[in-house]
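Is this the right way to post C-alpha cells for a design question? Let me know if I should format differently. Anyway, here goes:
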C-alpha cells in the first residue's frame, strides 16, 4: 500500500513545530569537571597563564560553582597538574564559588614546574581516582563527568601511555575534552590528542583563536544533555552516534496496549513523557530504526505514535496540561487514510509490505493493542533530573537491591510490575453518576495499571502472577469475572472493556454491595488454596459515597482490612461533590486514597501502581517491616524485615542463627540513625528485651582492616560509612574485640565492640521483604 507524503509547497515549518534541542543555559550547568593541566617546562609560564584564564572564563557565564543544598544545578570543578608526576591541587569540593575558582586556579597555575617531562597518563589517572572517591556515597552519582585536558606534548607507549587510562574513563561514562597548546605549530599534538578525546571534543588554542572558550563550553553543554537509563537519545543519524543530538529521548515498549492505555503508560514512565511525536520524515525514520533494533518488536512492525484526533483536528500527544500541537506540513498517512470515522481517533505506524517502511493508520482509541514508543525531554540545563527518579528507573530496569557497597541505603520495596504477585478485585461503579465517558477513563486506567507487563492469571511454572476479578455495582453488585476467569492480559483487557462499555440506567450507587461481593470472592477463591499466602487488594472506582445501615460501606471495608486486604480508592467526583475523596479515604488503607484529575491521569496510574507494589511488599510471619517511622504504621516502608531474638548467644552464634532463619537473612545493619532508632524501638517493644538494652548487630571487623556490615551468604559485606554511633571510648583495639553490639546509654543505645565468641546477649536479625523482586513461598 502506498503512503501519502505531503509537504505544503512554499511554507516553512512553524518554529514551535520542531523537536526540542539540548539546553544551552550555562548558568544551569550541572556537571562534575576535573581540569587536567600540563605544568611541565614545555607549557611555559605564559601558556599556564592563558590556561588559567581559559578555565576561569569557561565557567564565568553564570555557572554555579560548588554544591548548594537548595540548588541541584551546580558544577563542581577539580584541578590536577602533571609533569613527570601528577598532583591533586583541588578536589571536587574545594571550590564553592567562582571567586574560589579564580583565586586558586591562578595561584596554582602561576608558574611551571622544574620538570621537562610531561606524562599525561599520570594526570588522567589522578582525575580517575578523584572521580572514584569523591562521587562515592554522594547524591551526585547521576551527574555527568568531564575531564578537560590542557597539554603541551604527548608521550605515548609503555606504562606511561595515556590511551588505556583515557579509554577506561570514557568506558565509565566520562567525556574527555582536549585542548592542544601546540608549541611547534605543526598540528601534530592536536592529532595525537584526538585519540584520547571524546568524538568532536578535540580543540587547539591556535585553531580559531578566541573560540576555544566557546568550543569547551559547547562540549560541556553537550555532555550535560543525556537520557535516563533505558531511553535512547534522538539524533540526526541513527547509525552515526556522533551526529547532532536533540534534547529528546525515546523508549520503545514491547508490551501491547490499546492507544489510550499506551498514552497513559507513557505518561507514567518519566517526568513529562508522552507518546512519540513524528514532526518530519527524519524523526519518523529514526523511530522505525529504534523499533527495528528493540527486542519484542517483529515484522510486520506495528506500533502506536502520539497522533490523535481532538475536536476534529489531528494533534500530537503532550504531557498533561501542555498544549497539543496541531499536525502540520508533513504527513505520512497510508493510502486511504485517515478514514473518516468518529471512533477511529488514534494513530499507529503500520508496515504494509516487505520493504521496511511504515505509514500512519487511524484506529479505535480502545480496541487495537500493539507495542508503542514513548518520548520525553532529555536531562540537560533546562531539565534537571533527580537522583531519586534515576534510582527508581534503575530499580525497575535492572532489579538492583540498594543494600550494597555502592549505595549505603536500605533495600527498597521491589518495583517490577511485571513480577507483581497479588489477588486483586476491581470494584467499579457503573451507575449514571459515573456515566459512560468516565467509565471509559476507568477502563483506560485499569488497563494502564496492569499494562506494564504484569502477568495475569495462574501459571504453574511461575509464581509471580496476579489474578484479577471484576465487580460492577450500582443499586446492586454484579460479579463480572471471578479470580479464575482472566488468564492473560488480553483476556482481562477484552473482558474489562466489554463489562465497562456503558453505564447502567440507574442513579443509585451503593459501594457496600460491591465491597461485599469482593469479600465473598476472596473468602471463596483466595483462602485455603495454593495462593492463600498471596496478598489481596481491592481497587474501588467510585463516583459517589452513600449508604447507611446495611448499605453503609464502612463496616465491610473494616472487615476486609482486618482480614489483611488492602483497599485502594479512586474518586471520580461528580460536579458539586467535593467531599467524595474525603469520604472514600475512610474506607481506604492508609495512604491509598486518590482522586482522578483529568490533567494528571498519568500520575493517577502511577499512584495506584505504587499502592499495589506497597501491598506486594510485606514480611513473613514473626518479622517486622522496617519503615520510616516506628510510631506511624502508614509511613514509607522499606524492603527489609526485622526480627528480635530473645535467646542469648555469642555474636558468632547469633550471626549463624540469623543466616539460617530465612533466605537472604543476616544480623541487622544500621546504615542510618533512623534504622538504629527503629531497631531500638523494636527491642523496647519486644517481650524478653529489658533495660539496660543489649543486643548484637551485624557490624564486625575483618582482616583487611575495616569495619563492615554482615550480608546474606554469598553477598559482599558492606564497608562502614557515616553516621557512626560508637559509645565514648569505642571502638577499642579490634584484634580481640571484632564484633559489635548495641548497649543502652541514657535514653538511647550506642555501639561497643566485643569478642565474637564470648558474652551472650539477645540479637536482631534482618532479611529481605517479600516483594516483586523476592517471591516468598507459603510458610
Amino acid at each position: 500500500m502506498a503512503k501519502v507524503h505531503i509537504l505544503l509547497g512554499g511554507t516553512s515549518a512553524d518554529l514551535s513545530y520542531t523537536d526540542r534541542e539540548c539546553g544551552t543555559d550555562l548558568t544551569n550547568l550541572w556537571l562534575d569537571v576535573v581540569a587536567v593541566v600540563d605544568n611541565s617546562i614545555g607549557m611555559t609560564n605564559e601558556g599556564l597563564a592563558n590556561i588559567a584564564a581559559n578555565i576561569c572564563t569557561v565557567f564565568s557565564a553564570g555557572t554555579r560553582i560548588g554544591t548548594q543544598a537548595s540548588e541541584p544545578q551546580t558544577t563542581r570543578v577539580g584541578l590536577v597538574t602533571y609533569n613527570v608526576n601528577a598532583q591533586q591541587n583541588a578536589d571536587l569540593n574545594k571550590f564553592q564559588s567562582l571567586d574560589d575558582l579564580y583565586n586558586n586556579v591562578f595561584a596554582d597555575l602561576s608558574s611551571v614546574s622544574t620538570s621537562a617531562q610531561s606524562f599525561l597518563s599520570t594526570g588522567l589517572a589522578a582525575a580517575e581516582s578523584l572521580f572514584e572517591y569523591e562521587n562515592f556515597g554522594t547524591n551526585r552519582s547521576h551527574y555527568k563527568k568531564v575531564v578537560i585536558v590542557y597539554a603541551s606534548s604527548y608521550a605515548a607507549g609503555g606504562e606511561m601511555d595515556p590511551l588505556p587510562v583515557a579509554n577506561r574513563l570514557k568506558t565509565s561514562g566520562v567525556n574527555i575534552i582536549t585542548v592542544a597548546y601546540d608549541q611547534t605549530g605543526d598540528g601534530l599534538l592536536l592529532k595525537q590528542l584526538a585519540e584520547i578525546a571524546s568524538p568532536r571534543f578535540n580543540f587547539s588554542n591556535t585553531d580559531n583563536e578566541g573560540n576555544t572558550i566557546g568550543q569547551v563550553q559547547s562540549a560541556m553543554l553537550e555532555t550535560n544533555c543525556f537520557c535516563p537509563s533505558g531511553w535512547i537519545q534522538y539524533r540526526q543519524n541513527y547509525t552515526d552516534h556522533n551526529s547532532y543530538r536533540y534534547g529528546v529521548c525515546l523508549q520503545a515498549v514491547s508490551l501491547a496496549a490499546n492507544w489510550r492505555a499506551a498514552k497513559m503508560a507513557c505518561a507514567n514512565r518519566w517526568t513529562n513523557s508522552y507518546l512519540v511525536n513524528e514532526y518530519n520524515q527524519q524523526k519518523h525514520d529514526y523511530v522505525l530504526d529504534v523499533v527495528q533494533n528493540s527486542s519484542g518488536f517483529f515484522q510486520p512492525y506495528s506500533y502506536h505514535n502520539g497522533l490523535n484526533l481532538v475536536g476534529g483536528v489531528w494533534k500530537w500527544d503532550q504531557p498533561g496540561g501542555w498544549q497539543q500541537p496541531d499536525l502540520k506540513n508533513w504527513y505520512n498517512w497510508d493510502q486511504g487514510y485517515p478514514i473518516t470515522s468518529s471512533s477511529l481517533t488514534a494513530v499507529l505506524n503500520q508496515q504494509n509490505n516487505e520493504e521496511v517502511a511504515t505509514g500512519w493508520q487511524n484506529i479505535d482509541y480502545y480496541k487495537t493493542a500493539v507495542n508503542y514508543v514513548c518520548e520525553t525531554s532529555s536531562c540537560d540545563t533546562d531539565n534537571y533530573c533527580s537522583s531519586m527518579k534515576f534510582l527508581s528507573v534503575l530499580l525497575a530496569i535492572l532489579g538492583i537491591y540498594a543494600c550494597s557497597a555502592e549505595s549505603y541505603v536500605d533495600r527498597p520495596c521491589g518495583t517490577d510490575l511485571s513480577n507483581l504477585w497479588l489477588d486483586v478485585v476491581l470494584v467499579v461503579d457503573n451507575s449514571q453518576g459515573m456515566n459512560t465517558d468516565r467509565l471509559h477513563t476507568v477502563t483506560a486506567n485499569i488497563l494502564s495499571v496492569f499494562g506494564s507487563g504484569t502477568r495475569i492469571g495462574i501459571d504453574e511454572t511461575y509464581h509471580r502472577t496476579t489474578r484479577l476479578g471484576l465487580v460492577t455495582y450500582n443499586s446492586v453488585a454484579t460479579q463480572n469475572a471471578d479470580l479464575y476467569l482472566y488468564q492473560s492480559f488480553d483476556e482481562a483487557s477484552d473482558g474489562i472493556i466489554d463489562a465497562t462499555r456503558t453505564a447502567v440506567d440507574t442513579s443509585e450507587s451503593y459501594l457496600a454491595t460491591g465491597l461485599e461481593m469482593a469479600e465473598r470472592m476472596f473468602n471463596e477463591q483466595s483462602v485455603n488454596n495454593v495462593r492463600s499466602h498471596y496478598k489481596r487488594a481491592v481497587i474501588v472506582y467510585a463516583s459517589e459515597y452513600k449508604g447507611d445501615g446495611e448499605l453503609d460501606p464502612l463496616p465491610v471495608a473494616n472487615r476486609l482490612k482486618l482480614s489483611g486486604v488492602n483497599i485502594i480508592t479512586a474518586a471520580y467526583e461528580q460536579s458539586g461533590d467535593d467531599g467524595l475523596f474525603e469520604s472514600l479515604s475512610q474506607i481506604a488503607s492508609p495512604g491509598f486514597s486518590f482522586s482522578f484529575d483529568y490533567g494528571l491521569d498519568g500520575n493517577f496510574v502511577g499512584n495506584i501502581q505504587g499502592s499495589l507494589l506497597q501491598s506486594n511488599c510485606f514480611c513473613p510471619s514473626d518479622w517486622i517491616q522496617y519503615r520510616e517511622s516506628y510510631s506511624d504504621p502508614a509511613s514509607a516502608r522499606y524492603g527489609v524485615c526485622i526480627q528480635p531474638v530473645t535467646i542469648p548467644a555469642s555474636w558468632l552464634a547469633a550471626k549463624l542463627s540469623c543466616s539460617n532463619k530465612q533466605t537472604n537473612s543476616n544480623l541487622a545493619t544500621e546504615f542510618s540513625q533512623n534504622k538504629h532508632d527503629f531497631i531500638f524501638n523494636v527491642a523496647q517493644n519486644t517481650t524478653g528485651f529489658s533495660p539496660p538494652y543489649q543486643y548484637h548487630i551485624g557490624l564486625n571487623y575483618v582482616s583487611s582492616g575495616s569495619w563492615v556490615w554482615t550480608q546474606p551468604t554469598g553477598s559482599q559485606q558492606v564497608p562502614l560509612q557515616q553516621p557512626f554511633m560508637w559509645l565514648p571510648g569505642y571502638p577499642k583495639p579490634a584484634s580481640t574485640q571484632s564484633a559489635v553490639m548495641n548497649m543502652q546509654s541514657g535514653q538511647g543505645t550506642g555501639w561497643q565492640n566485643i569478642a565474637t565468641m564470648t558474652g551472650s546477649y539477645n540479637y536482631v536479625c534482618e532479611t529481605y521483604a517479600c516483594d516483586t523482586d523476592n517471591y516468598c513461598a507459603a510458610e
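Format looks fine. Someone answered above. Worth noting: The mean pLDDT is 89. DSSP finds 17 helices and 33 strands in the chain.
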